[in-house]
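User: Quick sanity check before I run a bigger batch. Here is a single chain. Can you write out its predicted 3D structure?
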Amino acid sequence: MSKRILVVTGGGDCPGLNAVIRGIVKSAKLDGNWEVIGCIESYNGLLKDKIEVMPITEKEVSGIHIRGGTIIKTTNRGGPFNFPVQQSDGTWKTEDRSKLLLERLDDLGIEAIISIGGDGSQRISLELAKLGVNMVGVPKTIDNDLACTDFTFGFQTAVQIATEAIDKLVTTAESHNRVFILEVMGRDAGWIALHSALGGGADVCIIPEIMYDPAVIAKKIETRYFNGEGFCNIVIAEGARSSDGNIAGKSPTAIGEQHVKLGGAGDKLKYELEAAGVKHDIRVTVLGHLQRGGTPLAYDRILATAFGVKAFGLVKEKKYGNMVVYNHPEITYASLDEVVKKLNFINPQTNSLLWTAKKIGISFGD
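Assistant: Done. Predicted structure follows.
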């Protein structure tokens, strides 16, 4: 009788998710005696009243490594410990359905779960591991903010998309003598902003790890103009904080949603710069979910495939309670305990890329 692995993709979608699934399925098939089951919409497929799972065979994964998104869907709401349930009066509440999950895992004969997700997903992985579930994590986030791994898959594709956006904004900014602010994702980490600012040749890069002063940025902008002509391109991370200490965002409103909904950092900076005396025409572009979609770069397809193969290997070797990581040049693993202790942020004092950016004149508003 074959053993069963349950695969879940949680959190926001990310280029390379399908490549991980393909890596798991193809390596499990070659090994023999393994069956891979996909749980639809993260854990929700086993938490809903009607179970939604699907067998994932080589037929289902054929060619999916070039596709964005995930064939088994995903969600960043709910989960086994915080599942949204509508009441008879139409209101919603959340409840702990972890016991139900354990029962259904047993009913399906699941040997182990491979959870492909970011910080929130791996925290759930750790809690399930504490309940006795055989868990293996795979690091997924365009934000690149997971600890213990050099890179997460999806990050390089997001950086490429953001860099191409800067390339396009340069030409329109120059044509109109404008200041362009490009708002990129990353939540509380500035990796996308830093890498794309370097790759795209931005003049200013605002990251959450460095509190910015609008007056400093205003002075930098003026160095880009002569007799009223010139342009300036600014990249700002969605989690950026100005000297007032505030971030732009709203409290979560959807039931089961945990994170503050970030957004508006670019507009906030625009108003701050105008208040600081900048007279040039300022325009804001919010890149948004374009960074999450589309075809993954070769780099992310390769990394994701390697993660998938390693994840199956950890299941086969019964090395549970761990997450696959990339520590150059090796694909290895780290304990879930270590992974969730802290996030991976840019260290302004030691990061070599930030030092490089400053040495070519990129301002960080500090």
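The domain at 3-153+296-328 is CATH 3.40.50.450 (Rossmann fold).

User: Great, the batch can go ahead then.
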